[in-house]
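In response to reviewer comment 3 from the previous cycle, which asked for concrete evidence that the modeling workflow produces usable outputs, we include below a single protein chain processed end to end. The sequence was submitted unchanged, and the resulting structure tokens are shown without manual editing.
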Amino acid sequence: MTEELFRTDSYLKSCEARVVSVNNGAVVLDRTVFYPTGGGQPGDHGTLRLADGTELAVVEARKGAGATIEHVLAEGVSLPAVGDGVSAEIDWERRFKHMRMHTALHLLCALVDGSITGAQVGAEKSRIDFNIPESPDKQALGEALNALINADHPVLISSITDDELEANPELVRSLSVAPPRGLGTVRVIDVEGVDLQPCGGTHVGSTAEIGAITIGKIENKGKQNRRINIRFES
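The workflow returned the following structure tokens.
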């Protein structure tokens, strides 16, 4: 399995690791800071640096077999050997934008009373779909969202037991992605005093780090499906 360092510290930019397998241009490490595509958040980009200084571009991180993470290398680069030591480093600017956006979507969950039918995190813009009959007022929603951002709420990583989640089904807002059960505990993101829900993604440590957000189009995507688009104000 791959030790997922980003689960406990989203701010880690690099780590030392060892290659455990190489298959079809994808490298599995024993530990990594690379977030794999999942839960609406894109996988990280970055580099694997070999002991001789050679840098191998990682164009995608994705979930592999079992509990592994595959680092997909750019075409044409030389592949490392099993057992090689590498320094794994993410594209931090891109990741930090994903962290800010993902946290902003959690704030929207606190402001819109409806189940989530889909979401997509992006570096410049993101969207979240809610199962609600009517579109919220765009201006009022934008003002409320930025008020939560400016309030500088701490964003904490914690966990609850499977039994606690079973007893509190309202914590699961998504209709399309179910949190993993059977491991004893479930990772949750707690925007203190604002939002609490299971989530495996990466987030900022405080809402103030998100920065100003603009509400884009609020689209009708079905009888009770409203898509709210957001982007960074600058």
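The CA atoms of residues 41 and 89 lie 18 Å apart. We consider this sufficient to address the reviewer's concern, and the full set will be provided in the supplementary archive.
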